[in-house]
Amino acid sequence: MNGSGIDYEAVFRRLPAPVALLTPDLVYADANPVYLSTTGRTRDELIGSYLFDAFPENPGDPGANGVRNLGASLRRVAATGERDSMALQRYDVEDPARPGVWEERYWSAVNTPVFDADGRVVLVLHRVEEVTELIRARGRNGTVDGERAQVLEAELYSRARELQEVNEQLRQAHDREHEVALSLQAAMLPAPAPLGGHRAAVRYRPATGALNVCGDWYDLAELPGDRLAVAVGDVVGHGLAAAGVMGQLRSALSAASRVAEGPASALDVLGLYARFVDGAESTTVFSTVIDWADHTLAYSSAGHLPAALLGTDATVTFLDRATDPPLGARPEPVARPQASIAFTEGASLVLYTDGLVERRDEDIDTGLQRLADSLVRHQGADPESLADAVLADLLPSGGATDDTALIVIAL
Known about the structure:
Elements: H1 8-14, E1 19-22, E2 28-31, H2 33-39, H3 43-46, H4 51-54, H5 66-80, E3 84-85, E4 89-90, E5 93-94, E6 102-103, E7 106-115, E8 121-130, H6 132-135, H7 146-188, E9 200-205, E10 216-223, E11 227-234, H8 239-259, H9 263-274, E12 284-291, E13 296-302, E14 307-310, E15 316-319, E16 323-324, E17 339-342, E18 348-352, H10 364-377, H11 383-394, E19 404-410
Parallel strand pairs: 13-16
Antiparallel strand pairs: 1-2, 1-8, 3-7, 4-7, 5-6, 7-8, 9-19, 10-11, 11-12, 12-13, 13-17, 14-15, 14-18, 18-19
Helix pairs in contact: 7-8, 8-9, 10-11
């Protein structure tokens, strides 16, 4: 039972379709009675066993590819967290009562990820339907129209293989676009150049297993008078389209920061520019100007999460006193708010995007507190070490489910 009062174990046992739960290493964690009866195995034979030890490839069929195809699908689901519906598969099964005797079997399978609270894939739900009888075109009385069965079997199996090939081509195209987007991201978000003796670290982590890249960005621009403009932003959307928008906005803000009177004015300029860029609406940005001569931070936020100031006394202050709606979500040209705060030498400034702190079904304050705890725990670390420590503390071990950009600056 859980808080809803529903006995999900009982539901699992009574599902009318054959369903098994596999670990990401493809070891049986559970199987419902219909799955056991369909495969001709007992719970003791399956639970704790490696899938392909329990169901190996038919050694008498040199063209068999069921293990390869099923293994590829299950591992892809475990790695990407994306559901995968397989094309019709021939996967022969050894008769448990007659070792060495293999039965020709056809299956339709759907593999679905099961996540934990941190968004990691902890199980794969493997649902199968046996369609052997359909393929063989058996009638209700169990007889086979030989000629019709052969034609139908060849037709269905041929169409299924064609669908499998098309699916594979689509995956390859998806992978190519993913790599192009990552390369574009790397080109547009280079490591910062030396900052006149000041130290900074930047990190970018794309979402694991999805074309969810290129929406997050950062920028650092040196200004006259020992000042530094720093910004981080998040474009709504994913992939190459978001990458193009990100590149335009990053360049526009970098230019505006060099001539504007402060971060709020720079965001005003960016907001006007964003009105003419398709896909720029609802972009969030946090912009700040560090003045080392005065030991002050001036900042303004367009709907973005607040930067964190880690003091030398191990206190964390979130810069949230100048927050306004995202780009395109407010009337123009109303001036955006700006605030300032003093800092002491030896403090650290941390800017980030939501992938670092947001989690499914969790209040954002919980994520911000987790960030604050991590910063306090590693207070005194240099920017490179602090950036690595924060990512290790906050990102799930199985990889981030959203893009994450992070900037750490020693003040």
